[in-house]
Specification:
about 270 residues, alpha+beta, five-stranded antiparallel β-sheet, elongated
């Protein structure tokens, strides 16, 4: 996706995230689309007819509709679709087509893609002076991800598991204040807790429990050193119920008490 895309893309007010009503349908066969539409299903089940070809729709299904596309979609009222849709225009899109993703995808890295989707809707609803610029960048990132996933060769099951566990490890590091249990992480990976624990250590080079503790303590050190928070505030922010236990765990890993690290931060 080139800089040319950023300069040529036009955003519209036709975007959002919605859980479709029980009787929802989407039929543009009598009036095909006049613009582009990035359309993503978060959950639910349904079907999508796009230019005479029918696709199943479920969690992670993504379409990039183009001007002239005719659609007919429906869903199971017992499992309604929740979707994000982003309509946009391109002044002269034909030269850009080789760098754009195809029309149908099952998104692989949903965590990143869904983060972009949510941020797009949020920033466009905020409607600040920078919303359009950020929105264009987020849209470009989403299309780049689809194109990259499309161009990558199919992963061997072992490579897919490695990618999944690294993604979950990144999530732990990103949210150290949230409790992360072996059972919930294993469920996310669709593995038994025992097997997940073994594979996590094999791939990350460290046992899961130690990794969780280490990421929390690394975040604690950052908050003490750079954010002006004291030990009690940091312990509470990171989910510790016992301040003395936090202090002992911190010293065991860092070699210093939380108060010493905080003083070092003040001396910078």
């Amino acid at each position: 996706m080139s800089v040319e895309f950023i300069t040529q893309v036009g955003l519209t007010s036709n975007f959002g995230k919605v859980t479709c009503e029980r009787t929802w349908k989407w039929d543009t066969r009598q009036q095909p689309l006049e613009d582009f539409d990035l359309w993503y299903a978060w959950n639910g089940t349904g079907t999508m007819l796009r230019n005479k070809m029918t696709y199943p729709v479920g969690s992670g299904t993504c379409f990039l509709f183009m001007p002239g596309d005719a659609t007919a979609a429906s869903h199971d009222p017992q499992q309604p679709l929740t979707v994000t849709y982003i309509h946009f225009s391109l002044a002269d899109y034909k030269p850009l087509l080789p760098s754009m993703p195809s029309g149908y995808h099952i998104v692989k890295d949903r965590f990143v893609f869904e983060t972009y989707l949510n941020r797009y809707v949020e920033t466009m609803l905020e409607n600040t002076k920078d919303s359009a610029v950020e929105g264009k960048m987020l849209l470009a990132l989403m299309l780049m991800q689809l194109k990259r996933e499309e161009d990558q060769p199919a992963l061997h099951p072992a490579d897919h598991l490695t990618s999944l566990i690294r993604m979950l490890a990144h999530r732990i590091r990103q949210t150290p204040g949230i409790p992360h249990s072996l059972e919930s992480l294993a469920e996310n990976a669709n593995l038994s807790p025992r097997y997940f624990s073994l594979k996590f250590k094999e791939i990350m080079g460290i046992p899961l429990e130690r990794y969780i503790i280490q990421t929390r303590i690394e975040r604690a050190e950052q908050l003490l050193r750079y954010n002006g928070m004291n030990a009690s505030e940091v312990a509470e922010a990171l989910g510790y119920k016992d301040l003395s236990f936090f202090s002992r765990q911190f010293k065991k890993i860092c070699g210093k008490n939380p108060s010493e690290i905080r003083k070092e931060g003040f001396r910078r």
